[in-house]
Design goal:
This protein is an all-beta fold. The chain contains one helix and 26 strands. Among the domains are: about 30 residues; about 50 residues, no CATH class; about 30 residues, no CATH class; about 30 residues, no CATH class; about 45 residues, no CATH class.
Length: about 270
């Protein structure tokens, strides 16, 4: 094939053929692959022979030392060692199983529990006589008892209560509010109290549930020169007039500050 070869030279041709140059002739034969393992991996790229550095089991490649359970194995454990698969199956005793884990692998039945004159099947849950707060379970002939789990409470300690016949504490209902706290200084208004929070047009009331409800007053009556009384929400249009910073009564006549020849009068309309 256009390449000189020395006498006695050996090489691999495509198709896994082993060739040699002998006496001016090229002799080729299929590569022989002695495989010393039972579950070799397929030949890697660039190689002709399978590899025993891992295992091929049920179409799945396993690494060296990999421990696994076959898909159809009943608790069988297998290990890959030097291309060989070794499996170990549990020994299943006849009759009752010695442990619950063995019962998951074998067809044997877990041992029943005899407890205080009663017989319970494996996995059965029951409470002690007269003690509903203790829960017991039968596990392969052995009885394990523990207190019934209680929920986590989000109320403070002084509001927790243990009623007659109850196993767990419960939260008492919070006491009914006696009033409304309205600021950081601890000022409390009794239920039904009405007050103004600083704005004379806003009134607040302490509700029965301890909440505060506020409402603003809308001033309907308007006039151009009303009298504004401190602490009163709406301006007063019936008492007189406010003009240039002075207050005049109804029907009061006064000279204009802007023009002394003009005379003004306060009229309620």
């Amino acid at each position: 094939r256009g390449v000189p070869r020395e006498p006695g030279a050996r090489w691999i041709e495509p198709g896994c053929k082993s060739c040699a140059c002998q006496g001016g002739q090229v002799l080729c034969e299929a590569v022989s692959c002695p495989v010393p393992c039972s579950h070799p991996l397929p030949a890697p790229a660039g190689s002709c022979c399978p590899s025993c550095s891992g295992c091929l089991h049920e179409g799945v490649a396993r690494a060296e030392g990999d421990v696994f359970s076959p898909s159809d194995g009943n608790c069988t454990v297998c290990v890959c060692l030097a291309g060989n698969i070794s499996c170990i199956s549990p020994e299943c005793p006849p009759g009752s199983c010695s442990s619950s884990s063995l019962a998951d692998c074998c067809s044997c039945q877990p041992a029943k529990c005899s407890f205080r004159g009663h017989t319970y099947a494996h996995g059965a849950r029951f409470s002690l006589d007269g003690d509903e707060c203790t829960i017991c379970i039968c596990r392969a002939g052995e009885v394990e008892c523990s207190f019934a789990p209680c929920p986590v409470l989000d109320c403070p300690q002084h509001q927790r209560h243990l009623g007659p016949g109850q196993c767990c504490f419960t939260c008492r209902d919070p006491p009914a509010p006696a009033g409304c706290f309205v600021d950081d200084n601890g000022v409390e208004f009794p239920i039904g109290q009405i007050w103004s929070p600083g704005d004379p047009c806003e009134l607040c009331i302490c509700q029965a549930d301890g909440s505060v409800s506020c409402k603003r007053t809308d001033c309907v009556e308007t006039c151009p020169y009303p009298i504004r009384i401190p602490g009163q929400c709406c301006p007063d249009c019936s008492a007189g007039c406010t003009y240039m910073g002075r207050i005049f009564y109804n029907n009061e006549t006064f000279p204009s500050i802007l023009d002394p020849c003009l005379s003004c009068i306060c009229l309620v309309r």
